[in-house]
Amino acid sequence: THPTYQYTSRRALNGPRYIELMNRFFDDLEARTGLKVVIAAHPKAEYSPETFNHRPIIFYQTPALIEHCSLAFGHFTTAFINAILAKKPVAFPYYREMLRCGQKYITIAGMELGRLLNAPVVDLEHLKPFPVEVDQAAYDRFLERFIIDANHPQENTEKLILDFLRDYEQG
């Protein structure tokens, strides 16, 4: 199971079912698009090469993988900001059990992000073809609403944070 759904004091996902559905999704995606799936693994994941049918599993390289991908998908992670900034298509796979487990709010957040981006929310138990495209207007609305500081649109995040810390330190 994905570590986020595993480490909970409440109901965890059924690990073998999660892996089975994700592999079925990967097989379907590869067959439909001709793309090869590469796993950008969560740092706490303990996957073996067999977990995802010998697909590449890469740790600590998520931003670089996103920069060079044709489609980014996941449940919910701040790494989606990289995909949005890079104008990459995104998709949000889920299945019914993810909406009832102890970490269901992560799934719900991913589904909501998909809605905001007008991006596919993919039911892993009922796979259907979905568009691999960017709704640029939706991406722009998301960036303007949640990422870009309207008061300082030309300043980078690093400068904004350092300025904030300097102002805070000076009282």
Low-confidence stretches: none
Global structural class: mainly alpha
Give the biggest beta sheet.
Answer: 3 strands, parallel
Strand elements, count: 5
N-C termini distance:
46 Å
Q: Give the rounded overall mean pLDDT.
A: 90
Estimated share of beta-strand residues: 5-15%
What gross morphology would you assign? globular
* Sheet with most strands: strand arrangement: 3-4-5
Oligomer state equals single chain
Order of helices and strands: HHEEHEHEHEHH
Alpha plus pi helix count: 7
What's the Cα radius of gyration?
18 Å
Fraction in helix: 40-55%
Structural descriptors:
three-stranded parallel β-sheet; globular; 7 helices; two-stranded parallel sheet; 171 residues; mainly alpha
